[in-house]
Amino acid sequence: MNLTRRSLLTTLGLTTAATLTRRAFPQPSTASPIHDPQRPSYHLLPARGWMNDPCAPIFYRGQYHMFHQYNPHAAIWGDMHWAHATSPDMIHWQRLPIALAPTPKSSDSEGCFTGSSILHNGTPAIIYTGVQTVPRAQATLLDDHTSLRESQNIAIATDDTLGFWRKLPKPAILTPPPGLKVTGFRDPTPFHFNGQRYLLVGSGQRGKGGMVLLYRAGKDPDGSPSLTHWEYLHPMAHGEWSHTSPPVPDPVDSGEMWECPDFFPLGEGPSAKHVLIYSTRRKTYWQSGVLNPTTLLFHAEKSGELDYGHGTFYAPKTQLDAHGNRTLWGWLPETRPEADYARAGWSGMMSLPRRLSLKNGNLHMEPAIETQSLRSTANPNPSHLSNTAQEFSCVLHAASSPTPYTLTDPTGPILEIRSDHHQDPLTIRLNEIEIKIPERLPARAALQVFIDNSVIEVFVDNRFCITRRFYARNPTQPVATLTIAGASRVTRPQSFPLQPIWPL
User: Fold this and answer.
1) How far apart are the C-alpha atoms of 280 and 28, rounded to whole Å?
2) Do 398 and 290 belong to one domain?
3) Cβ pair 365, 355 in contact under 8 A
4) DSSP-derived secondary structure letter, 144
5) DSSP for residue 343
6) What is the Cα–Cα distance from 287 to 75, expressed in whole angstroms?
7) pLDDT tier at 8, thresholds 50, 70, 90
8) Strand, coil or helix: 367
9) What is the dihedral of CA 370, 373, 374, 378, to 10 degrees?
10) Which of 112, 417, 439, 466 has the fewest CB atoms lying closer than 10 Å?
């Protein structure tokens, strides 16, 4: 079941986020560790319970801090808190106590939704969406079962471990701009441009399309940019409605709402651009282009999908790592039935960190080099894996005749790489997923694959990423079949067993 964050409320037929915690699903004992062969061993996830969007990743005083949406009571969506983990290298994580929890009778009483981090006068702060039940006329998240107001709230760190946060008593932005009837109003992301602080909020309009609303920070009495005073300017970028018929209840599914925007500069010199990322229609998209300094409108020049996994990579967030590299994280949801993951006691994980770059306006993604710290001794027989926590890499080399290649483990094939002379040269296939690419793959294209029990992350040419979930294994069929147009053979294959980061 592939669900967006908002459609979970509608699908589950619940009146408020807090109600979700009361559903009767079998839960394992909280005193015992979860033993589930589907559970990943080297991806970031909580000890138990539900997780979704990455929130406010930041490198601060020698440590990486990752927060994420979290239900501490059950392995289903609801009662949104912020979990917290730290790492010296973005790979090996330590789970810490909950950082944010809903405050009764406040603007986040029904949940602390997604947000971003920012340094304010040298101190980390977070800007996040709080939700509160309100009369339907005041709601921004509205359907037959929910009537919630989304507002943008501030919390400021009170210690250097970022374990304690002081919430400001009033939202920085309580309601959407007057006269704008929105399909949602959430997931704030701040950025700086030409010495000024700005803020984007995900939104949209029925019958028109998704958009990101642009705000400009006011000034505090000392002349510094404010965290609490924001002036609405206009939609900075917008999309088109898909004209679905009959109308789709969830505006995210129709493209009438953009969630989880992120916006940042990428590249250097004349080739530098700005990149906008947003999630809608159960996918995540990127655009690269120019932010006009006069009109403050974003003009996209190139675009594409961030991950082609069809509902298995969503709501991403970026950060700068210790070396100034732009690094991407995404939520990898479950695709098995809800009853299965509720019973298992866990749901969802964070993707591996992906380093972003821009070449000729196209967004490129490769596994962060820190992932190499997971490797143990190289497998002398790279076509045969010893377990399902592995990294595999090779070069796809154009050849005069195709040479299939199959990666296996003791339970059967995992990845099959094959060629197809009849396939469109501007297409890559992974099982049933068809990826349209803007130009042919080069004669030598890198392939890198990470396998972690029930998830596989595939990187083709450091440009096209495909994430898949798999649970039941067929010993005669590969988990994934990658088909390349033309004729190619695998060269320079390497395989590494990867060490777990969690106790087994």
Assistant:
1) 34
2) no
3) yes
4) S
5) H
6) 34
7) low
8) strand
9) 120
10) 439
Does residue 377 carry a pLDDT above 80? no
Residue 33 lies in a domain: no
pLDDT at 400: 85
With b for 16 or more beta-carbon neighbours within 10 A and e for fewer, the 89-119 pattern comes to: bbbbbeebeebbebeeebbbbbbbbbbbbbe
pLDDT at 270: 81
Instruction: Tell me what the pLDDT averaged over the chain comes to.
Output: 90
Token readout for 280 is 């809608």
Q: What is the pLDDT of residue 51?
A: 97
Using CA atoms in the order 70, 74, 79, 83, what is the torsion angle rounded to 10 degrees? -20
Q: Which own/partner contact pairs does 369-374 have at CB distance under 8 Å and 24+ positions apart?
A: 370/89, 370/90, 370/91, 371/91, 371/450, 373/89, 373/91, 373/92, 374/42, 374/91, 374/496, 374/498, 374/499, 374/501
What is d(CA 360, CA 424) in angstroms, rounded to the nearest whole number? 23
Q: Is residue 42 part of a domain?
A: no
Specify if 249 maps to a domain: yes
Length of the chain: 504
- Give the active site residue among 36, 53, 108, 424: 53
| Tokens, residue 33 | 């560790």
**Residue 135: per-residue pLDDT:** 95
SS3 assignment for 271-307: HCEEEEEEEECCEEEEEEEEECCCCCCEEEEEEEECC
The CATH number that applies at residue 98 is 2.115.10.20
Percent of the chain with pLDDT over 90: 80
pLDDT at 81 over 60: yes
Is there a catalytic annotation at residue 36?
no
The yes-or-no verdict on residue 172 having pLDDT over 50 is yes
Tokens of 276: 């906008």
Residue 424 covered by a domain: yes
Neighbours of 18 (CB within 10 A): 18
Please say whether the beta carbons of 259 and 315 come within 8 A.
Answer: yes
Q: Which residue type sits at 51? A: M
Instruction: Tokens for 498, please give them.
Output: 């990867």
Using CB atoms within 10 Å of the CB of residue 17, give its burial: 0 to 12 exposed, 13 to 18 middle, 19+ buried.
Answer: buried
pTM of model > 0.70: yes
Which amino acid, 487?
A: A
Q: Where residue 401 sits, what CATH number does that domain have? A: 2.60.120
Query: How many domains is the chain partitioned into structurally?
Result: 2
Q: Residue 289 and residue 204: Cα distance in Å, rounded?
A: 21
Confidence of residue 415 (pLDDT cuts 50, 70, 90): very high
Same domain, 176 and 246: yes
Same domain for 349 and 398, yes or no, is: no
Q: What are the C-alpha distances in Å from 193 to residues 204, 286, 374, 395, 465?
A: 23, 19, 37, 40, 29
What is the average pLDDT across 403-422?
A: 91
**Whole-number percent of the chain with pLDDT over 70:** 91
